[in-house]
Amino acid sequence: MGVRDHRGRRVRPSAGGRRPTGDGRDDVAVWYAYPDGTTKIWTYLSTTTGTFGAPTSSWSAPTGTWARARAKFVTGDFNGDGRDDLGAFYGQGDDSVKTYVFNAQPGGGFAAPVVWWQTTALDWSRTYPHSGDFNGDGRDDATVWYDYADGSDKTSTILSENVDGTDRFGAAKVTLNSAGGLDITRSQLVVGDYYGDGRDDLSIMHNLADDSVKTWTWIARPDTLFNAGLAGYTVPLSSWDYSLSRFTNTYNH
């Protein structure tokens, strides 16, 4: 399912890109919050010459129904149809979180949102969602990195599935457990298949207490858990300023 390379691996959309038409070219989607409180999704479709066409709007929401500040977005082909969709982890304002999926349509627009998952067990301010194909089945999934008040961190993976003809995210499963030492507020996380096995992994650039910068990678296993963290290169303070660094991230916006 989806676009694949010569080795049969799924081709990922480029950073900041979207593929709502499924034509093999990445497009751009813009979530626009108007001053009057209305919301629209605009799509700029890529052309065969490498440019973008004029924007077209699809889904829109009435005044006051969506607050941009309460939405954390992820992108991916969640239903496996070859077109990238938009997911929004939305803080309802009552300590509950709902994940809405806007399915991409053949013409490049987006359908009205459908709730794929919800929970009352998350503090919205400590929730960091991302997306990727963590079990290698061709459907993108979601994961939440959660920053606990005691200093520990966990990730929970929410697999995309189809049950009796209905697409949704399944139950959250803890897939990574860190006892401490990693402050997500001093880290930038990116998702990608860093091991080349068809499953997406996690990686962070972490700002250490002495202001040096270190990378860590967690490789996804067939059972969707992540292996122990692999320490990468540590950049000395003298050659890298973390405050000026931004990871380019494919899936999370």
Provide tags for this entry.
mainly beta; 17 strands; disordered N terminus; single chain; four-stranded antiparallel sheet; 253 residues; globular
Q: Would you give an account of this structure?
A:
This protein has strands spanning 28-33, 39-44, 56-61, 71-76, 85-91, 97-102, 114-119, 127-132, 141-147, 153-158, 160-163, 166-169, 173-178, 187-192, 201-207, 213-218, 230-235. The protein has 253 residues and is mainly beta. The strands form five sheets. Strands 4-5-6-7 form a four-stranded antiparallel sheet, with no helix packed on it. A four-stranded antiparallel sheet has the order 8-9-10-13, with no helix packed on it. The chain is globular and about 50 Å long. The model is unreliable at 1-16 (pLDDT under 50).
Q: What strand line-up does the widest sheet have?
A: 4-5-6-7
Number of strands: 17
**Strand content range:** 35-45%
> How would a crystallographer describe the biggest sheet?
4 strands, antiparallel
Stretches where pLDDT is under 50 for at least 5 consecutive residues are 1-16
**Gap between N and C termini, in Å?**
24 Å
User: Taking all residues together, what is the mean pLDDT?
Assistant: 87
Basic shape: globular
Radius of gyration: 18 Å
Structural class: mainly beta
* Total of helices: 0
One letter per element, helices H and strands E, the order comes to EEEEEEEEEEEEEEEEE
Proportion in helices: under 10%
